Protein backbone atom coordinates (compact mmCIF):
# COMPACT_ATOMS: atom_id res chain seq x y z
CA UNK A 1 0.00 0.00 0.00
CA UNK A 2 1.23 3.49 -0.85
CA UNK A 3 2.12 5.95 1.88
CA UNK A 4 -0.79 8.12 2.96
CA UNK A 5 -3.31 6.10 1.01
CA UNK A 6 -6.70 5.33 2.51
CA UNK A 7 -8.26 2.26 1.03
CA UNK A 8 -11.41 0.22 1.51
CA UNK A 9 -11.35 -3.46 0.66
CA UNK A 10 -14.36 -5.65 -0.02
CA UNK A 11 -14.01 -9.36 -0.64
CA UNK A 12 -16.83 -11.19 -2.37
CA UNK A 13 -16.76 -14.63 -3.88
CA UNK A 14 -19.24 -16.70 -5.85
CA UNK A 15 -18.61 -20.38 -5.26
CA UNK A 16 -20.22 -22.88 -7.59
CA UNK A 17 -21.19 -26.30 -6.36
CA UNK A 18 -19.31 -28.93 -8.32
CA UNK A 19 -19.62 -32.69 -8.39
CA UNK A 20 -17.91 -34.52 -5.54
CA UNK A 21 -14.33 -35.48 -6.27
CA UNK A 22 -12.24 -38.30 -4.82
CA UNK A 23 -11.22 -38.03 -1.17
CA UNK A 24 -7.84 -36.46 -0.47
CA UNK A 25 -5.77 -35.71 2.61
CA UNK A 26 -3.60 -32.59 2.66
CA UNK A 27 -0.59 -31.23 4.49
CA UNK A 28 -1.20 -27.83 6.09
CA UNK A 29 1.35 -25.13 6.84
CA UNK A 30 -0.17 -22.25 8.82
CA UNK A 31 2.05 -19.28 9.66
CA UNK A 32 1.24 -15.88 11.16
CA UNK A 33 4.45 -13.79 11.04
CA UNK A 34 4.36 -10.85 13.42
CA UNK A 35 1.24 -12.02 15.25
CA UNK A 36 1.05 -12.49 19.00
CA UNK A 37 0.27 -15.93 20.38
CA UNK A 38 -3.29 -14.95 21.25
CA UNK A 39 -3.93 -13.42 17.81
CA UNK A 40 -2.45 -16.48 16.12
CA UNK A 41 -4.75 -18.76 18.12
CA UNK A 42 -7.74 -16.58 17.26
CA UNK A 43 -6.95 -16.65 13.53
CA UNK A 44 -6.40 -20.39 13.48
CA UNK A 45 -9.58 -20.86 15.47
CA UNK A 46 -11.74 -19.38 12.68
CA UNK A 47 -9.97 -21.12 9.79
CA UNK A 48 -11.95 -23.90 8.13
CA UNK A 49 -8.73 -25.27 6.67
CA UNK A 50 -7.23 -25.55 10.14
CA UNK A 51 -10.35 -27.25 11.49
CA UNK A 52 -10.52 -29.86 8.72
CA UNK A 53 -6.80 -30.55 8.25
CA UNK A 54 -7.04 -33.93 9.97
CA UNK A 55 -10.31 -34.94 8.29
CA UNK A 56 -9.33 -37.30 5.47
CA UNK A 57 -12.91 -37.50 4.24
CA UNK A 58 -12.61 -34.00 2.77
CA UNK A 59 -12.25 -34.00 -1.01
CA UNK A 60 -10.59 -31.39 -3.22
CA UNK A 61 -13.83 -29.44 -3.68
CA UNK A 62 -14.28 -29.22 0.10
CA UNK A 63 -10.72 -27.98 0.52
CA UNK A 64 -11.10 -25.42 -2.27
CA UNK A 65 -14.39 -24.13 -0.81
CA UNK A 66 -12.84 -23.89 2.65
CA UNK A 67 -9.89 -21.94 1.26
CA UNK A 68 -12.13 -19.44 -0.54
CA UNK A 69 -14.23 -18.98 2.60
CA UNK A 70 -11.16 -18.54 4.81
CA UNK A 71 -10.21 -15.27 3.13
CA UNK A 72 -13.30 -13.52 4.45
CA UNK A 73 -13.21 -15.35 7.78
CA UNK A 74 -9.59 -14.41 8.47
CA UNK A 75 -9.90 -10.81 7.22
CA UNK A 76 -13.02 -10.32 9.35
CA UNK A 77 -11.11 -11.66 12.34
CA UNK A 78 -8.23 -9.26 11.70
CA UNK A 79 -10.68 -6.36 11.51
CA UNK A 80 -12.33 -7.49 14.74
CA UNK A 81 -8.94 -7.28 16.48
CA UNK A 82 -8.00 -3.91 14.95
CA UNK A 83 -5.74 -5.00 12.06
CA UNK A 84 -6.71 -3.32 8.78
CA UNK A 85 -3.61 -3.72 6.61
CA UNK A 86 -3.11 -7.44 6.91
CA UNK A 87 -2.05 -9.71 4.09
CA UNK A 88 -3.69 -13.11 3.69
CA UNK A 89 -2.28 -15.73 1.35
CA UNK A 90 -3.79 -19.18 0.87
CA UNK A 91 -2.05 -21.43 -1.63
CA UNK A 92 -3.26 -24.81 -2.84
CA UNK A 93 -0.36 -26.77 -4.29
CA UNK A 94 1.39 -23.47 -4.95
CA UNK A 95 -1.58 -21.64 -6.53
CA UNK A 96 -3.27 -18.70 -4.76
CA UNK A 97 -6.80 -19.91 -4.05
CA UNK A 98 -8.33 -16.49 -4.74
CA UNK A 99 -6.97 -16.55 -8.30
CA UNK A 100 -8.49 -19.94 -9.14
CA UNK A 101 -11.80 -19.78 -10.98
CA UNK A 102 -14.57 -21.89 -9.43
CA UNK A 103 -14.97 -23.48 -12.85
CA UNK A 104 -11.31 -24.47 -12.80
CA UNK A 105 -11.27 -26.00 -9.32
CA UNK A 106 -8.40 -28.43 -8.69
CA UNK A 107 -9.14 -32.14 -8.86
CA UNK A 108 -6.75 -32.84 -6.02
CA UNK A 109 -5.00 -30.90 -3.27
CA UNK A 110 -1.94 -32.20 -1.46
CA UNK A 111 -0.36 -29.14 0.13
CA UNK A 112 -2.03 -26.11 1.67
CA UNK A 113 0.01 -23.11 2.78
CA UNK A 114 -1.71 -20.35 4.76
CA UNK A 115 0.23 -17.20 5.61
CA UNK A 116 -1.36 -14.34 7.53
CA UNK A 117 0.64 -11.17 8.16
CA UNK A 118 -1.55 -9.00 10.41
CA UNK A 119 0.42 -5.78 10.04
CA UNK A 120 0.22 -2.99 12.62
CA UNK A 121 -2.56 -2.73 15.17
CA UNK A 122 -4.73 0.31 14.39
CA UNK A 123 -5.91 2.75 17.05
CA UNK A 124 -8.97 4.94 17.13
CA UNK A 125 -8.29 8.53 16.03
CA UNK A 126 -11.96 9.51 16.19
CA UNK A 127 -14.87 7.95 18.07
CA UNK A 128 -18.08 9.82 17.60
CA UNK A 129 -21.68 8.64 17.83
CA UNK A 130 -24.21 11.46 17.77
CA UNK A 131 -26.66 12.61 18.79
CA UNK A 132 -26.83 10.60 22.00
CA UNK A 133 -29.73 10.14 24.39
CA UNK A 134 -29.23 11.09 28.05
CA UNK A 135 -27.26 8.55 30.08
CA UNK A 136 -26.05 6.65 27.02
CA UNK A 137 -23.24 4.25 27.90
CA UNK A 138 -20.86 3.52 25.04
CA UNK A 139 -18.39 0.60 25.18
CA UNK A 140 -15.33 1.36 27.32
CA UNK A 141 -12.94 0.44 24.53
CA UNK A 142 -14.58 2.84 22.07
CA UNK A 143 -12.20 5.72 22.79
CA UNK A 144 -9.39 7.61 21.07
CA UNK A 145 -6.08 5.78 21.40
CA UNK A 146 -7.64 2.38 22.08
CA UNK A 147 -7.31 -0.63 19.71
CA UNK A 148 -9.72 -0.03 16.83
CA UNK A 149 -11.63 -3.29 16.95
CA UNK A 150 -14.42 -3.30 14.38
CA UNK A 151 -16.86 -4.87 16.80
CA UNK A 152 -16.59 -1.84 19.08
CA UNK A 153 -17.95 0.39 16.32
CA UNK A 154 -20.96 -1.89 15.94
CA UNK A 155 -21.44 -2.05 19.71
CA UNK A 156 -21.27 1.74 20.00
CA UNK A 157 -23.84 2.25 17.25
CA UNK A 158 -26.13 -0.36 18.81
CA UNK A 159 -25.75 1.22 22.25
CA UNK A 160 -26.68 4.61 20.82
CA UNK A 161 -29.81 3.29 19.11
CA UNK A 162 -30.87 1.24 22.15
CA UNK A 163 -30.49 4.26 24.45
CA UNK A 164 -32.83 6.32 22.25
CA UNK A 165 -35.34 3.45 22.21
CA UNK A 166 -35.13 3.21 26.00
CA UNK A 167 -35.89 6.95 26.06
CA UNK A 168 -39.11 6.47 24.09
CA UNK A 169 -37.87 6.90 20.52
CA UNK A 170 -38.98 3.55 19.11
CA UNK A 171 -37.83 4.22 15.55
CA UNK A 172 -34.30 5.39 16.31
CA UNK A 173 -31.80 4.15 13.75
CA UNK A 174 -28.35 4.68 12.26
CA UNK A 175 -28.68 7.45 9.68
CA UNK A 176 -25.15 7.24 8.31
CA UNK A 177 -21.57 6.34 9.09
CA UNK A 178 -18.05 7.15 8.02
CA UNK A 179 -15.39 4.55 8.89
CA UNK A 180 -11.97 5.51 7.51
CA UNK A 181 -8.75 3.55 7.97
CA UNK A 182 -5.61 5.66 7.55
CA UNK A 183 -2.77 3.33 6.61
CA UNK A 184 -0.14 6.04 6.95
CA UNK A 185 -0.90 6.70 10.62
CA UNK A 186 -2.38 3.25 11.40
CA UNK A 187 -5.54 4.81 12.78
CA UNK A 188 -9.28 4.39 12.32
CA UNK A 189 -11.74 7.28 12.37
CA UNK A 190 -15.30 6.22 13.26
CA UNK A 191 -18.16 8.69 12.87
CA UNK A 192 -21.71 7.34 13.31
CA UNK A 193 -24.78 9.51 12.82
CA UNK A 194 -28.04 8.59 14.56
CA UNK A 195 -31.62 9.56 13.74
CA UNK A 196 -33.63 9.40 17.00
CA UNK A 197 -37.02 9.97 15.40
CA UNK A 198 -40.06 11.28 17.31
CA UNK A 199 -41.11 10.44 20.86
CA UNK A 200 -43.47 7.48 20.50
CA UNK A 201 -46.48 6.38 22.54
CA UNK A 202 -47.99 2.91 22.54
CA UNK A 203 -51.01 2.60 20.26
CA UNK A 204 -53.27 -0.44 20.03
CA UNK A 205 -52.49 -4.09 20.71
CA UNK A 206 -53.65 -6.37 17.89
CA UNK A 207 -54.12 -9.94 19.18
CA UNK A 208 -54.18 -13.20 17.23
CA UNK A 209 -53.83 -16.92 17.90
CA UNK A 210 -55.82 -17.33 21.13
CA UNK A 211 -58.57 -19.96 20.93
CA UNK A 212 -59.62 -21.06 24.41
CA UNK A 213 -58.48 -17.98 26.33
CA UNK A 214 -60.90 -15.09 25.95
CA UNK A 215 -59.39 -12.04 24.24
CA UNK A 216 -60.58 -9.70 26.99
CA UNK A 217 -58.77 -11.76 29.61
CA UNK A 218 -55.69 -12.05 27.41
CA UNK A 219 -55.49 -8.26 27.27
CA UNK A 220 -55.90 -8.01 31.04
CA UNK A 221 -53.12 -10.52 31.63
CA UNK A 222 -50.82 -8.86 29.09
CA UNK A 223 -51.24 -5.41 30.66
CA UNK A 224 -50.36 -3.59 27.44
CA UNK A 225 -49.76 0.11 28.32
CA UNK A 226 -51.79 1.85 25.60
CA UNK A 227 -51.14 5.60 25.55
CA UNK A 228 -47.94 5.47 27.60
CA UNK A 229 -44.51 6.49 26.33
CA UNK A 230 -42.79 3.66 24.49
CA UNK A 231 -40.42 1.52 26.52
CA UNK A 232 -39.05 -1.78 25.16
CA UNK A 233 -39.07 -3.18 28.69
CA UNK A 234 -42.87 -2.89 28.70
CA UNK A 235 -43.04 -5.26 25.73
CA UNK A 236 -40.77 -7.70 27.57
CA UNK A 237 -43.16 -7.56 30.53
CA UNK A 238 -46.14 -8.26 28.27
CA UNK A 239 -44.47 -11.41 26.98
CA UNK A 240 -43.33 -12.51 30.44
CA UNK A 241 -46.84 -12.16 31.90
CA UNK A 242 -48.36 -14.29 29.18
CA UNK A 243 -45.62 -16.94 29.31
CA UNK A 244 -45.85 -17.46 33.06
CA UNK A 245 -49.54 -18.44 32.75
CA UNK A 246 -48.34 -21.64 31.08
CA UNK A 247 -51.19 -21.36 28.56
CA UNK A 248 -49.00 -20.60 25.57
CA UNK A 249 -46.21 -22.48 23.82
CA UNK A 250 -45.26 -19.33 21.90
CA UNK A 251 -45.65 -15.60 22.55
CA UNK A 252 -44.34 -13.05 20.04
CA UNK A 253 -44.73 -9.28 19.79
CA UNK A 254 -43.97 -7.31 16.64
CA UNK A 255 -43.73 -3.54 16.47
CA UNK A 256 -45.49 -1.84 13.56
CA UNK A 257 -43.05 -0.74 10.85
CA UNK A 258 -44.61 2.71 10.57
CA UNK A 259 -46.04 5.10 13.13
CA UNK A 260 -49.58 6.44 13.23
CA UNK A 261 -50.14 10.13 12.35
CA UNK A 262 -50.07 10.98 16.07
CA UNK A 263 -46.68 9.22 16.49
CA UNK A 264 -48.25 6.31 18.31
CA UNK A 265 -47.18 2.77 17.43
CA UNK A 266 -49.36 -0.30 17.23
CA UNK A 267 -48.06 -3.70 18.30
CA UNK A 268 -49.03 -7.14 17.00
CA UNK A 269 -49.27 -9.95 19.55
CA UNK A 270 -49.30 -13.52 18.21
CA UNK A 271 -49.76 -16.45 20.59
CA UNK A 272 -49.94 -20.21 20.22
CA UNK A 273 -51.83 -22.12 22.90
CA UNK A 274 -50.60 -25.44 24.20
CA UNK A 275 -52.54 -28.28 25.81
CA UNK A 276 -54.53 -27.10 28.80
CA UNK A 277 -53.94 -30.15 30.98
CA UNK A 278 -50.72 -31.43 32.46
CA UNK A 279 -49.69 -34.10 34.93
CA UNK A 280 -46.43 -34.55 36.77
CA UNK A 281 -44.77 -36.74 39.39
CA UNK A 282 -41.64 -36.89 41.50
CA UNK A 283 -39.84 -39.16 43.94
CA UNK A 284 -37.16 -38.92 46.64
CA UNK A 285 -35.40 -41.50 48.78
CA UNK A 286 -34.02 -41.01 52.27
CA UNK A 287 -32.53 -44.01 54.06
CA UNK A 288 -34.04 -42.80 57.36
CA UNK A 289 -37.34 -41.23 56.28
CA UNK A 290 -38.02 -43.68 53.45
CA UNK A 291 -39.51 -43.02 50.03
CA UNK A 292 -41.47 -39.90 49.18
CA UNK A 293 -43.80 -39.69 46.17
CA UNK A 294 -45.52 -36.61 44.74
CA UNK A 295 -47.95 -36.13 41.86
CA UNK A 296 -50.07 -33.32 40.49
CA UNK A 297 -52.77 -32.60 37.90
CA UNK A 298 -52.94 -29.15 36.36
CA UNK A 299 -55.47 -27.32 34.19
CA UNK A 300 -54.02 -24.07 32.84
CA UNK A 301 -57.24 -22.44 31.61
CA UNK A 302 -60.16 -23.86 33.56
CA UNK A 303 -62.90 -21.34 32.76
CA UNK A 304 -61.45 -19.62 29.70
CA UNK A 305 -60.02 -16.73 31.68
CA UNK A 306 -56.58 -18.17 32.45
CA UNK A 307 -57.61 -19.77 35.75
CA UNK A 308 -55.14 -22.42 36.92
CA UNK A 309 -56.49 -25.40 38.85
CA UNK A 310 -53.86 -27.60 40.43
CA UNK A 311 -54.37 -30.70 42.56
CA UNK A 312 -51.34 -32.00 44.47
CA UNK A 313 -50.94 -35.29 46.27
CA UNK A 314 -48.01 -36.57 48.31
CA UNK A 315 -47.08 -39.70 50.22
CA UNK A 316 -43.89 -39.77 52.27
CA UNK A 317 -42.23 -41.93 54.88
CA UNK A 318 -42.84 -45.14 52.92
CA UNK A 319 -40.60 -47.74 54.52
CA UNK A 320 -39.03 -45.13 56.80
CA UNK A 321 -37.20 -45.98 60.01
CA UNK A 322 -38.90 -43.21 62.00
CA UNK A 323 -42.58 -42.41 62.34
CA UNK A 324 -45.11 -43.71 59.83
CA UNK A 325 -46.46 -42.81 56.43
CA UNK A 326 -47.60 -39.24 55.78
CA UNK A 327 -50.34 -38.23 53.34
CA UNK A 328 -51.45 -34.91 51.92
CA UNK A 329 -53.89 -33.69 49.28
CA UNK A 330 -54.21 -30.06 48.23
CA UNK A 331 -56.19 -28.03 45.71
CA UNK A 332 -55.42 -24.53 44.49
CA UNK A 333 -57.20 -22.37 41.94
CA UNK A 334 -55.42 -19.21 40.84
CA UNK A 335 -56.64 -16.33 38.69
CA UNK A 336 -53.93 -14.17 37.07
CA UNK A 337 -54.31 -10.42 36.59
CA UNK A 338 -56.93 -10.02 39.31
CA UNK A 339 -55.65 -6.83 40.92
CA UNK A 340 -53.60 -5.56 37.99
CA UNK A 341 -51.54 -7.53 35.45
CA UNK A 342 -48.87 -8.58 37.95
CA UNK A 343 -51.10 -9.68 40.83
CA UNK A 344 -52.83 -13.06 41.01
CA UNK A 345 -55.53 -14.10 43.46
CA UNK A 346 -55.89 -17.67 44.66
CA UNK A 347 -58.02 -19.95 46.81
CA UNK A 348 -56.59 -23.13 48.25
CA UNK A 349 -57.44 -25.95 50.60
CA UNK A 350 -55.50 -28.95 51.89
CA UNK A 351 -55.88 -31.98 54.12
CA UNK A 352 -52.99 -33.92 55.61
CA UNK A 353 -52.13 -36.77 57.93
CA UNK A 354 -48.68 -36.87 59.53
CA UNK A 355 -47.31 -39.82 61.47
CA UNK A 356 -44.15 -38.57 63.15
CA UNK A 357 -42.01 -40.40 65.68
CA UNK A 358 -43.33 -38.39 68.64
CA UNK A 359 -46.84 -37.50 67.52
CA UNK A 360 -49.58 -37.96 64.92
CA UNK A 361 -51.42 -35.05 63.35
CA UNK A 362 -54.52 -34.69 61.20
CA UNK A 363 -54.96 -31.23 59.71
CA UNK A 364 -57.19 -29.17 57.44
CA UNK A 365 -56.32 -25.78 55.88
CA UNK A 366 -58.40 -23.37 53.83
CA UNK A 367 -57.77 -19.79 52.74
CA UNK A 368 -57.28 -17.27 50.01
CA UNK A 369 -54.48 -14.88 49.12
CA UNK A 370 -52.70 -12.81 46.51
CA UNK A 371 -49.29 -13.01 44.88
CA UNK A 372 -47.60 -10.03 43.23
CA UNK A 373 -44.61 -10.19 40.92
CA UNK A 374 -42.69 -6.93 41.22
CA UNK A 375 -39.92 -8.04 38.83
CA UNK A 376 -38.48 -11.20 37.36
CA UNK A 377 -36.62 -11.61 40.66
CA UNK A 378 -38.94 -10.22 43.37
CA UNK A 379 -42.24 -11.83 44.41
CA UNK A 380 -44.46 -11.15 47.43
CA UNK A 381 -47.24 -13.51 48.57
CA UNK A 382 -49.74 -12.86 51.35
CA UNK A 383 -52.86 -14.70 52.48
CA UNK A 384 -55.41 -15.22 55.23
CA UNK A 385 -56.12 -18.82 56.20
CA UNK A 386 -57.83 -21.02 58.75
CA UNK A 387 -56.25 -24.20 60.12
CA UNK A 388 -57.66 -27.00 62.23
CA UNK A 389 -55.47 -29.82 63.49
CA UNK A 390 -55.63 -32.68 65.97
CA UNK A 391 -52.35 -33.81 67.52
CA UNK A 392 -52.11 -37.15 69.29
CA UNK A 393 -49.07 -37.93 71.43
CA UNK A 394 -48.21 -39.68 74.69
CA UNK A 395 -50.04 -37.00 76.65
CA UNK A 396 -53.31 -37.46 74.75
CA UNK A 397 -55.11 -35.37 72.14
CA UNK A 398 -54.66 -31.66 71.56
CA UNK A 399 -56.79 -29.58 69.18
CA UNK A 400 -55.34 -26.51 67.49
CA UNK A 401 -57.50 -23.94 65.70
CA UNK A 402 -56.14 -20.68 64.39
CA UNK A 403 -56.48 -17.89 61.87
CA UNK A 404 -53.09 -17.13 60.34
CA UNK A 405 -51.75 -14.61 57.85
CA UNK A 406 -48.64 -15.92 56.08
CA UNK A 407 -46.56 -13.43 54.09
CA UNK A 408 -43.49 -14.45 52.10
CA UNK A 409 -41.02 -12.28 50.22
CA UNK A 410 -38.77 -14.03 47.68
CA UNK A 411 -35.82 -12.48 45.86
CA UNK A 412 -34.31 -14.99 43.43
CA UNK A 413 -31.16 -13.92 41.59
CA UNK A 414 -29.92 -17.42 40.70
CA UNK A 415 -29.03 -18.32 37.12
CA UNK A 416 -30.76 -21.71 37.44
CA UNK A 417 -33.32 -23.01 39.93
CA UNK A 418 -32.21 -26.66 39.98
CA UNK A 419 -28.48 -26.28 39.35
CA UNK A 420 -27.30 -22.73 40.17
CA UNK A 421 -23.69 -21.72 39.63
CA UNK A 422 -23.95 -18.05 40.57
CA UNK A 423 -26.29 -15.59 42.24
CA UNK A 424 -28.25 -15.72 45.46
CA UNK A 425 -31.69 -16.54 46.81
CA UNK A 426 -33.46 -14.87 49.73
CA UNK A 427 -36.80 -15.92 51.21
CA UNK A 428 -38.25 -14.32 54.32
CA UNK A 429 -41.52 -15.22 55.96
CA UNK A 430 -43.75 -13.71 58.64
CA UNK A 431 -46.81 -15.62 59.86
CA UNK A 432 -48.81 -14.06 62.69
CA UNK A 433 -51.58 -16.33 64.03
CA UNK A 434 -54.53 -15.96 66.36
CA UNK A 435 -55.54 -18.96 68.43
CA UNK A 436 -59.21 -19.93 68.55
CA UNK A 437 -59.86 -22.02 71.63
CA UNK A 438 -58.09 -23.00 74.82
CA UNK A 439 -55.35 -25.21 73.34
CA UNK A 440 -54.02 -22.71 70.78
CA UNK A 441 -51.93 -19.69 71.63
CA UNK A 442 -51.55 -16.42 69.75
CA UNK A 443 -48.20 -15.38 68.31
CA UNK A 444 -46.17 -15.54 65.16
CA UNK A 445 -43.38 -17.22 63.27
CA UNK A 446 -40.45 -15.56 61.47
CA UNK A 447 -38.27 -17.46 59.00
CA UNK A 448 -35.40 -16.67 56.65
CA UNK A 449 -33.66 -18.77 54.02
CA UNK A 450 -30.53 -17.27 52.44
CA UNK A 451 -28.49 -19.05 49.76
CA UNK A 452 -25.45 -17.95 47.76
CA UNK A 453 -23.50 -19.46 44.87
CA UNK A 454 -20.13 -18.66 43.31
CA UNK A 455 -18.75 -20.49 40.28
CA UNK A 456 -15.11 -20.57 39.22
CA UNK A 457 -13.45 -21.33 35.90
CA UNK A 458 -14.51 -20.70 32.31
CA UNK A 459 -17.37 -23.20 32.53
CA UNK A 460 -17.98 -22.68 36.26
CA UNK A 461 -17.38 -26.35 36.97
CA UNK A 462 -16.25 -25.58 40.51
CA UNK A 463 -19.02 -24.03 42.60
CA UNK A 464 -19.07 -22.99 46.25
CA UNK A 465 -22.58 -22.92 47.69
CA UNK A 466 -23.73 -21.77 51.11
CA UNK A 467 -27.03 -21.66 52.96
CA UNK A 468 -28.23 -20.03 56.17
CA UNK A 469 -31.65 -20.83 57.67
CA UNK A 470 -33.15 -18.94 60.60
CA UNK A 471 -36.44 -19.36 62.42
CA UNK A 472 -38.17 -18.15 65.54
CA UNK A 473 -41.63 -18.44 67.11
CA UNK A 474 -42.80 -15.64 69.37
CA UNK A 475 -45.85 -14.87 71.48
CA UNK A 476 -47.23 -18.32 72.33
CA UNK A 477 -45.96 -20.89 74.81
CA UNK A 478 -44.37 -23.95 73.27
CA UNK A 479 -47.20 -26.24 74.36
CA UNK A 480 -49.78 -23.89 72.80
CA UNK A 481 -47.90 -23.49 69.51
CA UNK A 482 -49.19 -25.53 66.55
CA UNK A 483 -46.73 -28.30 65.74
CA UNK A 484 -46.12 -27.21 62.14
CA UNK A 485 -44.75 -23.85 63.37
CA UNK A 486 -42.06 -25.51 65.50
CA UNK A 487 -38.55 -26.34 64.27
CA UNK A 488 -36.67 -29.63 64.03
CA UNK A 489 -33.22 -30.45 62.70
CA UNK A 490 -31.96 -33.53 60.93
CA UNK A 491 -32.35 -35.07 57.50
CA UNK A 492 -32.54 -33.61 54.02
CA UNK A 493 -33.18 -29.87 54.02
CA UNK A 494 -31.42 -29.29 57.36
CA UNK A 495 -28.60 -31.63 58.47
CA UNK A 496 -27.73 -34.53 56.21
CA UNK A 497 -26.05 -37.42 58.00
CA UNK A 498 -28.43 -37.11 60.96
CA UNK A 499 -31.79 -38.94 61.23
CA UNK A 500 -34.87 -37.09 60.02
CA UNK A 501 -36.17 -34.54 62.59
CA UNK A 502 -33.94 -36.13 65.22
CA UNK A 503 -33.15 -32.90 67.08
CA UNK A 504 -35.87 -31.06 68.98
CA UNK A 505 -36.52 -30.26 72.63
CA UNK A 506 -37.78 -32.59 75.34
CA UNK A 507 -39.76 -30.43 77.75
CA UNK A 508 -43.41 -31.38 77.30
CA UNK A 509 -45.29 -33.85 79.49
CA UNK A 510 -42.76 -33.65 82.31
CA UNK A 511 -39.72 -33.84 80.05
CA UNK A 512 -40.70 -37.14 78.42
CA UNK A 513 -42.09 -35.82 75.13
CA UNK A 514 -39.90 -34.48 72.33
CA UNK A 515 -41.25 -31.72 70.14
CA UNK A 516 -39.92 -29.02 67.87
CA UNK A 517 -38.23 -25.91 69.22
CA UNK A 518 -39.12 -22.25 68.95
CA UNK A 519 -35.70 -21.23 67.62
CA UNK A 520 -33.68 -22.67 64.76
CA UNK A 521 -30.37 -21.98 63.02
CA UNK A 522 -29.18 -24.06 60.08
CA UNK A 523 -25.91 -23.65 58.18
CA UNK A 524 -24.89 -25.63 55.10
CA UNK A 525 -21.86 -25.48 52.83
CA UNK A 526 -21.06 -27.38 49.65
CA UNK A 527 -18.16 -27.63 47.22
CA UNK A 528 -19.45 -28.85 43.85
CA UNK A 529 -16.97 -30.05 41.24
CA UNK A 530 -17.88 -31.00 37.67
CA UNK A 531 -15.76 -33.95 36.52
CA UNK A 532 -17.31 -34.13 33.03
CA UNK A 533 -20.15 -32.32 31.30
CA UNK A 534 -22.66 -34.64 33.00
CA UNK A 535 -20.97 -36.04 36.12
CA UNK A 536 -20.02 -34.12 39.24
CA UNK A 537 -19.07 -34.72 42.87
CA UNK A 538 -19.99 -32.78 46.00
CA UNK A 539 -18.54 -32.43 49.48
CA UNK A 540 -20.92 -30.99 52.09
CA UNK A 541 -21.17 -29.98 55.73
CA UNK A 542 -24.43 -29.16 57.57
CA UNK A 543 -25.05 -27.76 61.06
CA UNK A 544 -28.31 -27.36 62.97
CA UNK A 545 -29.28 -25.71 66.26
CA UNK A 546 -32.68 -25.97 67.96
CA UNK A 547 -33.83 -24.28 71.19
CA UNK A 548 -37.06 -23.83 73.10
CA UNK A 549 -38.44 -23.76 76.61
CA UNK A 550 -35.00 -23.27 78.15
CA UNK A 551 -33.49 -26.27 76.38
CA UNK A 552 -31.17 -26.28 73.36
CA UNK A 553 -29.04 -28.63 71.31
CA UNK A 554 -27.03 -28.87 68.13
CA UNK A 555 -25.91 -31.44 65.61
CA UNK A 556 -23.75 -31.60 62.48
CA UNK A 557 -23.26 -33.90 59.54
CA UNK A 558 -20.93 -34.16 56.56
CA UNK A 559 -20.48 -36.34 53.53
CA UNK A 560 -20.00 -36.75 49.82
CA UNK A 561 -22.37 -36.73 46.90
CA UNK A 562 -22.63 -37.61 43.24
CA UNK A 563 -24.46 -35.60 40.58
CA UNK A 564 -25.61 -36.72 37.14
CA UNK A 565 -26.93 -33.90 34.98
CA UNK A 566 -30.08 -34.48 32.93
CA UNK A 567 -32.46 -32.29 30.98
CA UNK A 568 -34.70 -31.88 34.03
CA UNK A 569 -31.89 -31.11 36.46
CA UNK A 570 -29.11 -33.06 38.18
CA UNK A 571 -29.97 -36.40 39.78
CA UNK A 572 -28.64 -36.18 43.33
CA UNK A 573 -27.11 -38.95 45.46
CA UNK A 574 -25.74 -37.87 48.85
CA UNK A 575 -24.25 -40.03 51.60
CA UNK A 576 -23.89 -38.28 54.96
CA UNK A 577 -22.48 -39.19 58.35
CA UNK A 578 -22.91 -37.64 61.83
CA UNK A 579 -20.11 -35.30 62.86
CA UNK A 580 -21.37 -34.00 66.20
CA UNK A 581 -24.40 -34.46 68.43
CA UNK A 582 -25.85 -37.61 69.98
CA UNK A 583 -28.92 -37.92 67.74
CA UNK A 584 -27.73 -40.58 65.32
CA UNK A 585 -25.04 -42.91 64.01
CA UNK A 586 -24.23 -44.56 60.71
CA UNK A 587 -24.68 -43.38 57.15
CA UNK A 588 -27.74 -41.64 55.73
CA UNK A 589 -28.51 -41.82 51.99
CA UNK A 590 -30.46 -39.21 50.03
CA UNK A 591 -31.63 -39.43 46.40
CA UNK A 592 -33.53 -36.72 44.54
CA UNK A 593 -33.61 -34.33 41.58
CA UNK A 594 -31.88 -30.96 41.74
CA UNK A 595 -29.11 -29.75 44.01
CA UNK A 596 -29.68 -30.03 47.76
CA UNK A 597 -30.22 -26.25 47.84
TrEMBL record:
Pfam families membership: Omp85, POTRA
The answer to whether UniProt assigns keyword Transmembrane to this entry is yes
The alphabetized UniProt keywords are: Membrane, Signal, Transmembrane, Transmembrane beta strand
- PROSITE patterns the UniProt entry points to: POTRA
Domain named POTRA: residues:
200-274
Q: Where is the signal peptide?
A: 1-25
| Record's keyword annotation contains Membrane | yes
- Where does it reside? Membrane
- Entry-linked InterPro entries: Bac_surfAg_D15, BamA/TamA_POTRA, D15-like, POTRA
Q: Name one GO cellular component term.
A: outer membrane
Q: What is this protein called?
A: POTRA domain-containing protein
Organism annotation:
Thioclava indica
Amino acid sequence: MGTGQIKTFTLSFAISVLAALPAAAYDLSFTTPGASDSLRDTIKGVSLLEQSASDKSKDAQDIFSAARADYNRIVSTLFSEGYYSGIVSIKLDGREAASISPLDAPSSVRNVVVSVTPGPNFRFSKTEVAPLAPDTKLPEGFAIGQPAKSGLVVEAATAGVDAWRDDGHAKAQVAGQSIIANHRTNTLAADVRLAPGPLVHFGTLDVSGNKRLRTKRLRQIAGFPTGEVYDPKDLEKVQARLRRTGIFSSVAVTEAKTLNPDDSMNVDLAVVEQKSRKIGAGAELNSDDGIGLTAYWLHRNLLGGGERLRIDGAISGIGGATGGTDYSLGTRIERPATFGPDTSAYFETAISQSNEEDYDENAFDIGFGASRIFSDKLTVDTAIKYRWSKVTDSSGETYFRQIYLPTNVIYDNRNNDLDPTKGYYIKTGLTPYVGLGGDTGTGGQITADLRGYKGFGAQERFVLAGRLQLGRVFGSDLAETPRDYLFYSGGGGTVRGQPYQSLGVTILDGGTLTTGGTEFVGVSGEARVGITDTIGVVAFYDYGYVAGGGESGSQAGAGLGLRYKTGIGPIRLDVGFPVSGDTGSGAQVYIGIGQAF
